[in-house]
Inverse folding.
């Protein structure tokens, strides 16, 4: 009986984890040209690195409920910039833009 209860509990836990995973398609543009495009799933509380270059790293983090954080880490300056927003329904988008004197960097994550 204990084994059945334990297996039921484990099955419910695995099911709840897979239900909370959200699928995104994220792209990055540098000076208007797409340089990266990828799809992935992120679970509640998880942070996924979805792009990695020598100078920039991009992460998407599921924070709480429908709140997500899109982060860009600039390796050369050891700085992080963020875009935070609520993404609830398929088709919702979280955008990040950084415009400097030398570059326009844009990232967009679409909830599938």
């Amino acid at each position: 009986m204990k084994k059945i209860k334990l297996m039921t509990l484990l099955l419910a836990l695995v099911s709840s984890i897979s239900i909370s995973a959200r699928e995104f398609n994220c792209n990055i543009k540098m000076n208007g040209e797409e340089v990266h495009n990828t799809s992935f799933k992120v679970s509640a509380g998880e942070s996924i690195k979805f792009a990695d270059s020598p100078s920039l790293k991009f992460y998407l983090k599921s924070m709480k409920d429908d709140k997500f954080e899109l982060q860009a880490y600039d390796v050369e300056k050891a700085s992080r910039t963020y875009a935070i927003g609520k993404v609830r329904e398929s088709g919702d988008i979280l955008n990040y833009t950084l415009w400097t004197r030398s570059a326009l960097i844009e990232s967009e994550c679409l909830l599938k």
